[in-house]
Amino acid sequence: MAKQTVLTSEGLKKLEEELDELKSVKRREVAEKIKVALGYGDLSENSEYDEAKNEQGLIEARIAEIEATLKNVKIIDEDNLSTEHVQLGNTVTVKDIDEDEILVLHIVGSKEVDVDAGKISDESPIGKALIGHSKGDVVDVEAPAGTFKFEIIDIGK
Q1: Looking at the whole model, is its pTM more than 0.70?
Q2: Mean pLDDT across the stretch 108-129?
Q3: 52, 75, 98: which is the final residue of a domain?
Q4: How many C-beta atoms surround the C-beta of residue 105 within 10 A?
Q5: Could you tell me if 91 and 62 lie in one domain?
């Protein structure tokens, strides 16, 4: 059985938009590239044709991946999120005690990770360590780069 994927409503919307883009725009673009490349003749030495077929394969693989994800998706009900304990879907403000730095992290499922935007997976070392803790708790995080201490300043939706 396929693993259930947990998404926020925003994450679901982005996946659906990507799927629509792949099916309605990218498929047509690559089909046109294949058609043009076929017009060049001999396929045995036609790099444009090979490249277009490879691109087509990547697009079809991504479509299949998104469709499989959407079949096994669970949406986080953000309206009913508790702010008492950190859980998937929460935005958590933490203080990195060692660096004396404040970080705002959004705990998301693995398909929505965007470290630059502060979205970390519930399966990451920091995400795992924060889950279940409350405001004011100091949490030790075991990560590949070493052990870090974070104080939970605030938990939001």
Answers
A1: no
A2: 88
A3: 75
A4: 20
A5: no
The pair of three-digit structure tokens given for residue 7, joined into one six-digit string: 């998404």
Final residue belonging to a domain, choices 33, 55, 75: 75
Can you give the pLDDT at residue 2?
Answer: 60
Same domain, 30 and 92: no
Instruction: Evaluate whether 18 touches 10 at the Cβ level (below 8 Å).
Output: no
Report the pLDDT value the prediction gives residue 99, as an integer from 0 to 100: 86
Question: Residues 63, 88: one domain?
Answer: no
Query: Which tokens sit at 56?
Result: 């087509």
* pLDDT beyond 90 at 98: no
Report the C-alpha dihedral over residues 67, 69, 70, 76, rounded to 10 degrees.
Answer: -160
List, in order, residues 6 or more apart from 46 with CB less than 8 Å away: 37, 40
Judge whether 46 and 40 are in contact, CB under 8 Å: yes
Quick one: pLDDT at residue 92? 94
Compute the 3-state secondary structure of the chain and give helix, strand, coil in percent, each to the nearest 5: 45, 25, 25
Which burial class, exposed, middle or buried, applies to 28 when counting CB atoms under 10 A from its CB (0-12, 13-18, 19+)? exposed
Q: Which two tokens stand for residue 19?
A: 């799927």
3-state secondary structure of 111: helix
Q: How far is CA 87 from the centre of its chain?
A: 17
